[in-house]
Every structure is written in C-alpha cells, then in structure tokens.
Amino acid sequence: MDRHLGPHFSIPAGSFFVFVLLSTSLALPIIDRFLYPRWRKLTGLGPTPLQRLGLGHIFNVLGLVGSALVESRRLHVVRAHDLEDQASSVVPMSALWLVLPLALVGIGEAFHFPGGVALYYQEFPASLHCTATAMTALIIGLKFYLSTAIVGLVRRVTEWLPDNINSGRIDDVYWMLAVVGVVNFRYFQLCAWLYKYQNVGKEDTDSGSPSSSS
Q1: What is the 8-class DSSP label of residue 117?
Q2: Domain ranges of the chain
Q3: Which of 2, 15, 61, 77 has the highest CB neighbour number within 10 Å of its CB?
Q4: What percent of the chain has pLDDT over 90?
Q5: Which domain of life is it from (predicted)?
Q6: For residue 196, what pLDDT band results from cuts at 50, 70 and 90?
C-alpha cells in the first residue's frame, strides 16, 4: 500500500501501530470526562468494570471487521492492476485506510484495560492488589504469544498467509478472527451475567470516583 504523506515522507510500516496508541491516548480522557459522567446521569450509576470490558470487546471486533473490509478492498485493487505475482510492488491504495480499524482497536483498549484493572483491583483480596495491577501486563504478554501461535496455525492449515500477501487472503484471516471475537464476546457475556461482585461497595465507590463523575 502507498504509505506516502506528501512527496517526501513515507510512514514506516512498523509505525502504524502508533495509531492504536494514539487513539487510546485520545479516547481515555474523552471516555473519562464525557462518556462516563453522561452514563452516570442517565443510569444513576457509573459503568461497572465488566461493562467496560464488554465495550472493549465490541470495539475490538469492529476493528477486525474494519481491517477485513480494508484488506478486501486492497486485494480488489491488486487484482485490478494484475499485481498478484509482484510481492514488492506498491498497491495504488493509501495505507491511511488502515487508520480507522486501528483507531477502533485503540478505543477498545481504552475501555478494556482500565476496566480490567478496575475489576482485578476491586475483586482481588487486599493482599493481591499488587498482583492485580500486574495482570494487564501479563495479559498483553500472553496475547502476543497467542497471536504468534494463531499465525503459525493458519499458515499450516490454510493458504491465506503466503510470503506474498498479494496472492493471499488476509481478509479471511480477519473475518475468522472477527468470528472468534464474537464467540468470545458471547462467552464473556455469559460469564459476566453469572458473575457476582464480591466488593460491591468498592465498585460503587469506583463508579462515583472523580475520574468517573467529574
């Protein structure tokens, strides 16, 4: 894809992940200062940690769907210009199309990780509060290992991820992950419905904290 911004600057391919971090950084104050106070005005209570996690799941799935649509469009352009066998060619499609799905993922993280930290910190015993704050880093590490395993599995059982992505079907990979995300979200909903908070008072205090109501 064309990564140029103007005639003299090209965005490094590895730097596109910055858009996830940037959207998370922008979404956090908006969510904290505008969304949650209005949520509290409408419902009388701030969103629970599990509700925040659920919103994060939804945005992550939307990001995968957006990535699948962008990749489908990219492959259409590849075929229209007969670039299937030219792995090093630049597809005449702006790479900035990737910003929207990456931003959706970043917004999902802005819901997901603070909600996870709040859940662990509220529900873990006081003696495990330090462990609770480390859970996010642990989950991120496991996520990278799991993603590597999924890529390896997909490459073994399908032809979606060849060395030449112009002849592959990365869009199918994204659709597969979106379906897995939906199934995971439904399972999360079941677990959240069955879960009983152990520290309801702390949960209410957190919902009414300045960061949630100011």
Answers
A1: H
A2: 13-213
A3: 61
A4: 50
A5: Eukaryota
A6: confident
Across-strand partners of 4? 10
Contact 66, 104 (CB under 8 A): yes
Residue 188 has pLDDT above 80, yes or no: yes
H/E/C letters for each residue in 159-206?
A: CCCCCCHHHCCHHHHHHHHHHHHHHHHHHHHHHHHHCCCCCHHHHHHH
**What's the Rg (C-alpha) of the chain?**
20
Q: Is the pLDDT of residue 200 over 60?
A: no
Q: Which amino acid is at 79?
A: R
> What are the C-alpha distances in Å from 157 to residues 4, 68, 73, 87, 108?
35, 20, 24, 22, 30
Closest C-alpha among 50, 48, 28 to residue 40: 48
- Top CATH class of 13-213 equals mainly alpha
- In this predicted structure, which of 50-59, 192-201, 204-213 has the lowest mean pLDDT? 204-213
Element holding 60 (H helix, E strand)? helix 49-80
The SS3 of residue 11 is coil
